[in-house]
Write a structure and sequence with these properties.
The protein is 55% helix and 10% strand. It is α+β, with helices and mostly antiparallel strands and 501 residues long. α2 packs antiparallel against α3. The strands form 2 sheets. Strands 1-3-4-6-5 form a 5-stranded mixed β-barrel. The longest helix is centred in the last third of the chain and has 25 residues. 34% of the residues are buried.
Length: 501
């Protein structure tokens, strides 16, 4: 299975390097090759799995799968003849709005397209819109209020996705393709005029509920922490929206190697899942004394705890926006929970490979992001340095605070050394102070700041204010220390980007 999954990843990555997409007959032949290879993996005589054939099957299927994705989404692109023309659309706000100096940006799910001069425009089902309150400094209109889940009738001007042609820069077109956005544009006019009208304040739906919940939590945190310098960090930890974190703060976080913590990372999701699982496990075992029912006789406490942990992780991942690290962590937690539920032993490498396959199947373009490689690379290094090395050495698991401290030091050392090749290849620099910074930031953010931020974002009354203000106080003091570390002359080792070999 692992060889097939590695082949799947290589095949999906290989497709991303092609200048043109394969034809439909070629995709069909690749699917046939994958099926034939799987059928030939077991020889008649030895009954052993043929690893090269299994890898070939994964390679063929991965290439074909990524090509199918690309064909499907590229077919939804805005026709050239409708660029720059006024089009009236009816649809719903499909994302958290991003406020900037002169307006806001948001995603719009198109439900209906109105005809223009007797013609029916062809518009992609999901577009990215900007809505400007002004185009100069003299005629600034009141702020535009748009919330997720609202249905609007808007008059827009669209264009096909375009990005800068600067070498080694951010690939905006690829990012839009990954987000399933096949047209960008802006809204003509202001709200509540003849062209733009809010039709419904909320349209029920799964995505609408998720995005409206994220918006409500963000507004609540921003209201309580209004004017605070690191309110954007708290918002990023609660709902995964990092757009309010200032560039100066990002420079400090990246120079000290703690940028992975200023978001909903896999560590945070695992911690929340473990916390919920632990509470349910303890209550389930004592259910007779609490409710008078012996629930463990109907469902073992371990299974109930695993189910509670996965459900908590699913909710947190949805609130986080389901990025690659969040997807990877959810997949791994789900595999472990299923193994526990069915009484199967799941090795670390199988869990990691299954999570890898799930992420690539859901999003073949995830391979193009640095976060994909850093996320899976970090987990692979941690598993090798802890579970893998212990099993190879035949060590017996021990307990105690000294063992926990040794494990934490070993993990930080392994991640720091193990990710140097990737960080140097992707960014051309390595933070030399990251072991010290992470040794302080990881426990502080994971065990104090994040729980306080999450609890404070949902609790009512003064207790919510206290939790959020306490979380911000801890982040503020942490930022002071990180700023000092980032200012050291040896904080970052910078070198030219190496060639691939």
């Amino acid at each position: 299975m692992r060889s097939a999954i590695i082949g799947l990843v290589v095949g999906a990555g290989w497709l991303q390097t092609q200048a043109t997409l394969p034809s439909w007959p070629m995709i069909f032949l690749l699917c046939v090759l994958a099926v034939v290879s799987i059928g030939m993996t077991r020889t008649v005589a030895s009954k052993k799995i043929n690893i090269p054939l299994l890898a070939l099957a994964g390679l063929s299927f991965g290439f074909a799968w990524a090509a199918l994705f690309a064909h499907h989404y590229l077919a939804q692109e805005l026709p050239r003849e409708w660029e720059g023309r006024d089009i009236t659309l009816v649809g719903t706000v499909d994302s958290l709005p991003d406020h900037f100096a002169r307006g806001l940006r948001f995603r719009f799910a198109v439900e209906k397209v109105l005809p223009v001069d007797g013609e029916m425009p062809v518009v992609p089902p999901r577009i990215a819109l900007s809505w400007y309150s002004s185009f100069d400094d003299e005629n600034i209109q009141p702020d535009i209020v748009v919330r997720p889940g609202e249905r609007w009738r808007l008059t827009v001007r669209l264009r096909r996705p375009h990005g800068n042609a600067n070498p080694y820069g951010f690939d905006y077109e690829q990012w839009l393709l990954e987000q399933n956005v096949r047209a960008t544009g802006y809204v003509r006019g202001l709200p509540d005029d003849n062209a733009n009208t809010r039709l419904n304040s909320f349209v029920p739906g799964f995505r609408a509920v998720v995005e409206r919940s994220r918006g409500w939590l963000r507004e609540r945190v921003q209201r309580i922490l209004e004017g605070k310098p690191y309110a954007g960090v708290i918002v990023a930890l609660v709902v995964g929206d990092q757009r309010a974190v200032g560039q100066e703060s990002w420079n400090v976080f990246n120079r000290t190697g703690v940028g992975h913590l200023i978001s909903i990372s896999g560590l945070h999701i695992t911690m929340i899942a473990a916390m919920f699982a632990g509470v349910v496990f303890a209550l389930w075992r004592r259910s007779f004394f609490i409710t008078g029912m012996q629930l463990p006789l109907r469902l073992p406490a371990q299974k109930a705890a695993a189910l509670a942990g996965v459900l908590a992780a699913v909710i947190y991942v949805l609130l986080a926006g389901a990025g690659v690290p969040a997807q990877r962590t959810l997949c791994m937690l789900t595999v472990v929970a299923l193994a526990l539920w069915f009484g199967r032993i799941a090795s670390a490498s199988h869990v990691l490979c299954l999570a890898l396959a799930a992420v690539v199947l859901l999003d073949p373009w995830a391979l193009l992001g640095a976060g994909f490689w850093l996320s899976f690379g970090a987990v692979a290094v941690i598993l090798y340095a802890s579970v893998g090395r212990a099993s190879l050495a035949g060590q017996v698991p021990r307990s105690g605070w000294r063992v926990a401290l040794d494990t934490a030091v070993l993990t930080q050392y392994a991640v720091t050394i193990g990710l140097i090749p990737l960080t140097m290849l992707l960014f051309g620099q390595v933070s030399l102070v990251s072991p010290i910074a992470n040794a302080i930031a990881i426990p502080l953010v994971s065990f104090f700041v994040t729980p306080l931020a999450l609890v404070g974002s949902v609790l009512p009354g003064p207790l919510s204010d206290w939790c959020l203000l306490s979380a911000h106080f801890l982040v503020e003091w942490l930022a002071y220390g990180l700023t000092w570390l980032s200012g050291l002359p040896f904080a970052v080792w910078t070198a030219p980007l190496p060639t691939w070999w």
